[in-house]
Write a structure and sequence with these properties.
- The structure is a single chain.
- The chain contains eleven helices and five strands; from the N terminus they run ααααββαααααββααβ.
- It is mainly alpha-helical and 227 residues long.
- The chain has two domains: 102 residues, Winged helix-like DNA-binding domain superfamily/Winged helix DNA-binding domain (Arc Repressor Mutant, subunit A), CATH 1.10.10; 93 residues, DnaA, N-terminal domain (GMP Synthetase, Chain A, domain 3), CATH 3.30.300.180.
- It has a three-stranded mixed sheet. Strands 1-2 form a two-stranded antiparallel ribbon.
- It is elongated, with a radius of gyration of 20 Å.
- The protein starts with 10 loop residues before the first helix and ends with a strand.
Length: 227
């Protein structure tokens, strides 16, 4: 995954990659989310210090930049914090504005769904970045994808077969690597190969996993993803 600290060698490219990811994601959303993402991108471009992971701008200045009033700024900044895209590093006090950092890991998790829209090279670059090989999130597998082994007879083995049948590409990219850890009552715990992989599955696929598990075992009430 793209480094969460885009500094040092190749930093400029990583900065553009992050803004590209955010922009592509915004364009796939409704007008309110589009505008929020555009405001954040403009704020990042104008005032964010990449080297120090620091965004320290007063509400009045942000209002002027966004062409809105300060009440709108307060509301939008709260929304950005709520999504995890901005993180408070130092709370503002008299004579000192609040200092923010970027929630880059959350930004990457939320925008991953549209990386392929930019291009396969971008998807590979964002998925791999500078992590170790065993941490690389698997990309779609071309050709035949092996049918899951159901010999264990567990609910996860049977659910995997359903998921493989429904969407082979998604199965190969995100589901095949999930390993069954334990079953405690209605909770099924699965292990992902990386934190990023787990975050993507939790955000975009968890409901699908639960539905498949419930199709083969109605007593499954929760699917938990861990690393």
């Amino acid at each position: 995954m793209l480094s969460t600290k885009p500094v040092g060698r190749g930093a400029s490219a990583r900065k553009y990659d992050l803004l590209t990811a955010l922009g592509a994601f915004a364009l796939s959303q409704g007008k309110h989310d589009q505008r929020r993402a555009l405001r954040l991108m403009t704020l990042i471009t104008a005032r964010y210090n990449w080297a120090r992971d620091e965004l320290a701008v007063g509400q009045r200045e942000i209002a002027r930049l966004w062409s809105v009033d300060e009440r709108t700024v307060k509301r939008e900044m709260a929304q950005l914090r709520g999504r995890g895209w901005l993180v408070v590093k130092r709370q503002g006090a008299r004579g000192r504005v609040t200092q923010y950092g970027l929630g880059i890991e959350q930004l990457l998790t939320d925008t991953a769904i549209t990386w392929a829209c930019v291009g396969s090279d971008f998807e590979i670059r964002m998925g791999q970045g500078e992590v170790l090989p065993q941490q690389v999130v698997p990309l779609p597998v071309r050709g035949t994808v092996a049918t899951p082994d159901t010999s264990s007879g567990t609910e996860w083995a049977l659910a995997r077969l359903l998921l493989h049948t429904e969407d082979t590409g998604t199965y190969a990219s995100w589901i095949a690597a999930l390993e069954r850890v334990e079953r405690a009552g209605g909770r099924l715990t699965l292990r992902a190969p990386s934190k990023f992989h787990a975050g993507y599955v939790q955000t975009h696929l968890q409901r699908r996993l639960l539905a498949a598990c419930q199709d083969v075992d109605a007593e499954v009430s929760e699917v938990r993803i861990t690393t």
